[in-house]
Known about the structure:
This protein is mostly beta strands and about 120 residues long. It is about 0% helix and about 55% strand.
Amino acid sequence: QVQLVESGGGLVQSGGSLRLSCAASGSIFSIDVMGWYRQTPGKPRESVAHITRGGTTAYADSAKGRFTISRDDAKNTLYLQMNSLKPDDTAVYYCNGKNRLGIWVGSWGQGTQVTVSS
């Protein structure tokens, strides 16, 4: 499995921005879909955004128009630009990927905490 390390989280005021990064220990070029997920205590992990090898993106309704996912295969890094942050975006954010069989290819990391104050 690919080891994934998320970074870039922090405390930000409502309306602010953060850029999350996900560094992979190996090549992500062959990973069919990579995505960002988030989780708050007591709730299941939810998908925020994902991007295919070809660059096609998709977003959760809550992220549309505010978040942008991108991937730099040369740097083996996945990004999430988050703008116009809201308190409801507060969560631990994780990244991972799936192969064409829908199997997770990475091990879940520690995540990065995003806290948005009102």
